[in-house]
Each structure stands twice: as C-alpha cells, then as structure tokens.
Amino acid sequence: MRYLVLIAASVFLLSYASAGLSYIQVKDVTMIPDGDELRLQVNYTLEPFARLYVLALGCRHIEPELIRLFSSYQNVKTVKAKPSTATLVVENAGTYLDGYYLYDAKPLSVPVSKFTVVYPEGVTRTFINVTSTPSIFVEENALRMAAR
C-alpha cells in the first residue's frame, strides 16, 4: 500500500513540476540576517494530494521545491521542513564591508505576498507582494549585540 501511495504521489508531483505548476503556495517568508548567512522561515500551504504525500512519507521530497524558491542564491540548505513551514539557511549570502554586512536583492522564483525582514536590533520591516528579496545592510555590532 505504501508503495502504491509513493508511486501515485510521485506521478502527481512530477506532473505538476513538468506542467510548470507548483503544488506549494507560499504564504509568507521571514528573513533573518546573521553574519554572512540568511535564515529564511517559509510558511506555505500544499495542494491536498501533496499534503497527504508529505504526511505519509515526510517532507524530504518537497525540499527541492522550497530551495528552488531561492534559486538565485547559492548554498541554500533546508534546516527543517514540516507540512506547512520550513527553515532554510543561505550560506555566504552577505558581503562584509567596513563594519557592515550587505545583502543584495535577489529574485524569487515565485511572488511572495508578505516578506518580513527581522533585523538584529529587533526591528521588523514587512514588504507586500514582492518578487525579490530586499537589499539590506546590517551593522556588525548589531549582530554581536543580538547574539548576547
């Protein structure tokens, strides 16, 4: 029975991917800069059949689709994925320059209706209907203070 579900789910996911459709609808993204890394918390919903697939077999098979959202970055890794939320880390996303970490804007593979940046000082900034990550900079001292 489990193999039958696996085969059916694989056919479903492949047909969605080949048709250019996504079985994941991103609700919102929260970006947290940390040194040269970015931590990305993604909240999403899955199509009903994909949700059953994930509940039965785990999130491992949807991780490539989550990483594809941030395909303009290199070194994107999934830290944790659940049926409706995931945490990803982008290594070497920031550039250090004169006491600041700079993070350039990068296009997203799909539009995101709500994109929030949480700065080390605790300040948040929310962007609506974005197609790329915002270009931001963070003072190195702010990162040290936040780590305490």
Can you tag this structure with a few keywords?
single chain, alpha+beta
Overview of the molecule:
With 148 residues, the protein is of the alpha+beta class. 28% of the residues lie in helices and 44% in strands. The protein has 4 helices and 9 strands. The strands form 2 sheets. The chain has a 6-stranded mixed sheet with strand order 3-4-2-1-7-8. A 3-stranded antiparallel sheet has the order 5-6-9. A hairpin with a 3-residue loop joins β3 and β4.
Provide a short characterization of the protein structure.
With 148 residues, this protein is an alpha+beta fold. It contains 4 helices and 9 strands; from the N terminus they run H-E-E-H-H-E-E-E-E-E-E-E-H.
- Order of strands side by side in the largest beta sheet? 3-4-2-1-7-8
What would you call the shape?
A: elongated
Class inferred from helices and paired strands: alpha+beta
Helix content: 25-40%
Poorly predicted regions are 16-21
Secondary-structure map:
Blueprint: H1 2-18, E1 24-34, E2 37-46, H2 48-57, H3 63-69, E3 76-81, E4 85-90, E5 95-97, E6 100-103, E7 107-118, E8 124-132, E9 136-139, H4 140-147
Parallel strand pairs: 1-7
Antiparallel strand pairs: 1-2, 2-4, 3-4, 5-6, 6-9, 7-8
